[in-house]
Design brief:
The protein is of the alpha/beta class and about 375 residues long. It folds into two domains: about 220 residues, TIM Barrel (Alpha-Beta Barrel); about 130 residues, Lyase, Ornithine Decarboxylase, Chain A, domain 1, CATH 2.40.37.10. Helix content is about 25%, strand content about 25%. The chain is built from twelve helices and 20 strands. A ten-stranded mixed β-sheet has the order 11-14-17-16-15-18-10-1-19-20. An eight-stranded parallel β-sheet has the order 4-3-2-9-8-7-6-5. The protein has a two-stranded antiparallel sheet with strand order 12-13. The model has no long low-confidence stretch (mean pLDDT about 95). The structure holds pyridoxal-5'-phosphate. Pyridoxal-5'-phosphate binds next to helix 9 and strand 9.
Length: about 375
């Protein structure tokens, strides 16, 4: 982790907000294991920083998408339980054993192959979570017979431990009966087999909308970071989530234009005499999509200014009032759900959702952390 950076376009992450969201959702499910989903670099916030902050405050269990992500956390000293949600290559099972991570078994064939690859290491174990397909048709099996055979394979091995059974909702953020149907299917399938220590299906939306004792763990990603999975969930949820991410930059150059001049590639913006144009050092390589021409960033006093002309790889230009100078701070994303620069507004402007906007904040943007005892800065580029 490098604490240096030399360009003033930064992602500001409020880890205390993440902790607030963690506690607020835990209060809804006080008896369930909270599995904090920190895949994809904790949705762009920084998985090591989030894991360190939450584990110091009692978090016991994390989930990631890939074995590489799990090993990254182990290499940074994260000791808590980690579940890999995606099926790893069966031949890599010894890596999972070596790093003491729990893995997902999507079907019997995968499990048999993985099991046959286990090297006979003394008292080394790997925790298996069986994946049930309850309707999404992405991963897992819906056949209770197959699941029973998978449990037999696990129990028949000295190295495998049957630790979990779980599924994933396809439509938990939507106002429809589909969620209840998938939940019923999950219960019907899993009640036909022996249950392990952890039974789980709720993602953020499921955790915010369902209060039910059948499961004993929840897997929460987006809401940990302060965003509702959808407007529908925000409307029906009583939990007050705190947005954790801000994106700021600073003006690096200013031009005053004459009538007939243009701005950016193709000169598609037609200037009026006296237009003051501020150049901001952030572009699509940082995750500021080309679709965001016209999006309004905000000056320190709240004045909002439109992005004009094409978004470049490393820059955007914005039309600003008189007086704005190089060095002035500009807010691209603000931690206020009602503002024109909210994560929600930033996302919908480019026809996307906070999940995708967060993941697209690229490694070129240093992460600056706020929160008690938080590591202050992580600049991946100078790592
Ligand atoms: C990403 C993911 C989650 C977390 O979903 P959120 O909507 O971000 O809470 C949970 N479970 C699985 C299997 C996932 O892939």
């Amino acid at each position: 982790m490098s604490e240096k950076y030399y360009r003033d376009s930064i992602v500001e992450v409020d880890l205390e907000a993440v902790h607030h969201n963690y506690q607020a959702i835990r209060e809804l499910h006080p008896d369930k294991m909270f599995i904090a989903v920190i895949k994809a670099n904790a949705y762009g916030l920084g998985s090591t920083a989030v894991a360190e902050y939450l584990s110091a405050r009692g978090a016991e269990f994390f989930a990631v998408a890939t074995l590489d992500e799990a090993i990254e956390l182990r290499m940074h000293g994260i000791k808590e339980k980690i579940l890999v949600l995606g099926p790893i290559n069966p031949e890599d099972i010894n890596k999972a054993i070596q790093h003491r991570v729990a893995i997902t078994a999507p079907n019997l064939a995968w499990l048999r192959e993985a099991q046959s690859n286990v090297m006979d290491m003394d008292d080394k174990e790997v925790w298996i979570h069986i994946k049930v397909n309850s309707g999404m048709n992405r991963l897992g099996t819906s056949d209770p017979e197959e699941i029973a055979q998978m449990i037999d394979v696990i129990e028949g091995s000295d190295h495998l431990v049957y630790e979990g059974i779980y599924s994933h909702f396809s439509s938990a953020d939507i106002d429809s009966g589909q969620n209840a149907r998938e939940y019923d299917r999950f219960k019907a399938i899993t009640s036909k087999v022996r249950k392990p220590r952890f039974v789980h299906i709720q993602n953020s939306a499921g955790a915010l909308r369902l209060d039910d004792g059948y499961c004993n763990a929840i897997r929460v990603g987006i809401s940990l970071y302060g965003y509702y999975p959808s407007d529908y969930i925000r409307e029906i949820s009583s939990v007050d989530l705190r947005p954790s991410v801000a994106l700021t930059t600073k003006v690096v150059d200013v031009h005053v234009l004459e009538s007939g001049e243009g701005v950016s590639y193709g000169l598609e913006y037609d200037a009026e005499a006296g237009d003051r144009v501020a150049t901001l050092p952030i572009g699509y390589a940082d995750g500021f999509l080309r679709a965001r021409t016209g999006y309004r960033v905000a000056l320190a006093d709240g004045t909002s200014c439109p992005v004009i002309g094409k978004v470049c790889m490393d820059y955007i230009m914005t039309k600003v009032p008189d007086g704005v100078q190089a060095g002035e701070k500009v807010h691209v994303i603000i931690r206020d759900r009602s503002s024109e620069q909210s994560m929600e507004a930033y996302s919908s402007y480019a026809d996307t959702i906070p999940y995708e906007s967060l993941c697209m904040l690229s490694r070129r943007l240093p992460r600056i952390y706020e929160g008690e005892d938080a590591a202050p800065v992580n600049n991946e580029v100078l790592k």
